[in-house]
Amino acid sequence: MKKELRTFVAQELRATGSDKQPRIEGYAATFGTVANIGSFNEVIQRGAFKRTLADGDDVVALIDHNPSMILGRRSAGTLMLEEDSIGLRFSCELPDTSVARDAYANLKAKNLRECSFGFFVDDEDGEQWSQQPDGRMLRTLTSVRLFDVSVVTFPAYDNTNAAARNVVADHVEARMAAVNQAAETEMRRKKAEAVLAEIAQEEAATETKRLHERYSNLIS
Questions:
Q1: Which of 30, 151, 154, 201 is deepest in the core (most CB within 10 A)?
Q2: pLDDT tens-place string over residues 202-214
């Protein structure tokens, strides 16, 4: 499955701990926020990370999704992940490396403000598609597999506007198109049924009027 990236202006992203044992904390994803991905909207449902966390999937903390700029790893115990009512919260104990020291200093200076996570949807049950009142498709992520959480310099998108750096798997567009087509077909079917029902109602009214006039003529 192709990896997808989602970026958020991070809530509570901050440098914590001490210079002797630096740490960064924040949310890599938030629930319930509708984001414009370009051709569709997307929202993360609470519980979307439950399976990947319960199964012990190994996840790394990176800078800009770059595997050579590692900050922590779940299997090493230096990266902690949990879901709460807000979203996917992470806490990373930083190593004594130049990459980590630079990240810590930039976070303290607020030069870094965005978080991102890399994921894939491992089966169709991990997402739901629906059509919004304005006709745009809404993708709800219900269960995803995490690759990494990253502190990023440039966001893939800012929760409102899509950008070229955003990565969407090809099959996502295909599934959206299929659902959209099905929704349009269903809408046309309902319109046709409504027209037929209206015609039948008019014909019934005409027949009732005709019979009433015939009865009136018979008794007059």
A1: 151
A2: 777 787 777 777 7
User: What size, in residues, is the chain?
Assistant: 220
Alpha carbon distance 190, 179 (integer Å): 16
Asked if 83 and 53 touch (Cβ cutoff 8 Å), the reply is yes
β-bridge mates for residue 63, sequence order: 66, 151
Could you tell me which of 160, 156, 150 has the C-alpha nearest to residue 168? Answer: 156
Both tokens assigned to 131: 């059509």
Residues 155 and 178 reside in one and the same domain: no
pTM of the model: 0.71
The 10s digit of each residue's pLDDT in 84-94 is 999 999 999 99
Report how far residue 57's alpha carbon sits from residue 147's, in angstroms, rounded to the nearest whole number.
8
| % of the chain at pLDDT higher than 70 | 80
Question: Domain range for residue 210?
Answer: 169-220
Q: Is 122 found in the same domain as 185? A: no
- DSSP readout, 16-84? EE-SSSEEEEEEEEESS--EE-SSSEEEEPTTTTHHHHHTT---EEEETTEEEEEEEETTTTSEEEEE-
**Is beta strand 137-141 parallel, antiparallel or unpaired with respect to 41-44?**
parallel
Domains of the chain: total: 2
Separation of alpha carbons 71 and 26, rounded Å: 14
d(CA 149, CA 47): 17
